[in-house]
Amino acid sequence: MVVLSIFLAFMGQLVSADQQQQLALSSASSDFSQRLYQKVALNKSNVVYSPYSIHSLLTMTSLGARGDTAAEMKNVLGITSLGESVHSLYRETIQQLNSQSNVQLLTGNAIFINPSYPIVPEFIQETANEYFALTDHIDFSANGGPEKPINDYVEAKTEHVIKDLLEPELNSFQQAEINGFIVISKPGAIDNYTVMLLVNTIFFNGTWNYPFDVTKTGMQDFQLLGGAVKQVDMMSGYQIETNIKTDDVNKVDVAEIAFKGKRFALYIALPQEVDGITDLEILLQKPGKVDELLTGFDSKNIKITMPKFRIETKIELKDVLIDMGMVQAFSDKSADFSGLSQAQVYISKVIHKAVIEVQESGTVAAAVTAAKITGKVKPVPFIADHPFLYFLRDKETGQVIFQGKFSG
Q1: Which of 153, 191, 223, 398 is deepest in the core (most CB within 10 A)?
Q2: Are 200 and 108 contacting, i.e. CB atoms less than 8 angstroms apart?
């Protein structure tokens, strides 16, 4: 009996320690999100992004980083104190998110690889083990360009909400030397210099625990900053018992609108003053303030009226992340991703796209984050700055249709 008690106490400590680490990971992601918010949202009237998608993808990418590059990435992501356990924590998070039954929630990772580059096998194995990442080759011969199969993958994983993430190829050619071979490509989102593309997708579809009454939706006044008024589609809910928080110190009220199952909820943080959004944004810059904002609720009988809306945002994150301190990862000279590839590679682009639609029945949201890993290449010069011959030739028959000389 004593042995059983000791065992149960030990297991309780393990569970508690694991919960603490999960809280530390969510806190790191939340703090990263607020620092990111200051860079991408302050000057926009409407914006949406997925902190989980961006943070998890960059953390997965850091598996291949070494030295100062890894240190910078971990510092910006706020995961230094978690050590290597951060990857197993994300493994648990992915498993939990994908096992929901009351809402539709699907998240996944994929890595698209250029077979011309040497990839460290351990990186592929670790991303598969910890992030359930699927691996495929970039199809440079695909109809519509190599971007299309990846765009199709993203669209399928987000239930057709996110479309055309990657831009197609351009109408110009580039020539370069890669691993001793001369290659000619049309530079688009993906070209022959692309070593790999790491992709995270997340899709959410939840029904409100108490749906809004469609018949009560109508145009109402919405007060804008500066005193202007705009007519927007406003939903009006039933009078329900829900969690609400009145914070008179920080002058903000927060309402929790739960989805079925009550594990997930949409929180509306409404400044008590019409022009109080700026003060709230400043407040949330401080570490831990979001967690503080979303705790301490009381259950009250309220009637919620809020806009029905759809927001779509696409963000290029390279310059933002550099400004936040993730410098070396984007440098073609000093990036160290030797745990990812035996070639000299660096992150050349991070793209994020997100969509959210809030309506009477519930909320649909989807996001994707893609990190492009590029090889450091040596351009092959071809400068026609002295007399040359030229030939216009039919490649099929071999016939030279025109021939000539240019001497300036």
Answers
A1: 191
A2: yes
Q: Residue 170 pLDDT more than 50?
A: no
Higher pLDDT, 323 or 396: 323
Question: Alpha-carbon distance 272 to 246, whole Å?
Answer: 9
With cut-offs at 50, 70 and 90, classify the pLDDT of residue 180: very low
Residues counted in the chain? 408
Integer Cα distance of 122 and 365 in angstroms? 33
Please report the pLDDT score of residue 112 as a whole number. 97
Rounded CA-CA distance 72/57 in Å is 15
Task: Note the pLDDT of residue 377.
Answer: 57
User: What angle do helix axes 2-40 and 51-61 make, rounded to 10 degrees?
Assistant: 100
- Of 276, 166, 145, nearest in space to 223 by CA: 276
Retrieve residue 91's tokens: 């493994």
Please tell me the pTM assigned to this model.
0.86
State the average pLDDT over residues 69-81. 97
Per the prediction, the chain carries an average pLDDT of 86
CB 33 within 8 A of CB 51: yes
Question: To 10 degrees, what angle do helices 121-131 and 85-97 make?
Answer: 50
Query: Can you say whether residue 96 is alpha, beta or left, with left for phi > 0 and alpha for psi between -120 and 50 degrees?
Result: alpha
Q: Which residues pair with 347 in a beta bridge?
A: 373
How many whole angstroms from its chain centre is CA 227?
35
Residue-wise DSSP of 301-329: EEEEEEE-EEEEEEEE-HHHHHHHT--GG
**Cα 357–Cα 206–Cα 266 angle in degrees, nearest 5:** 70
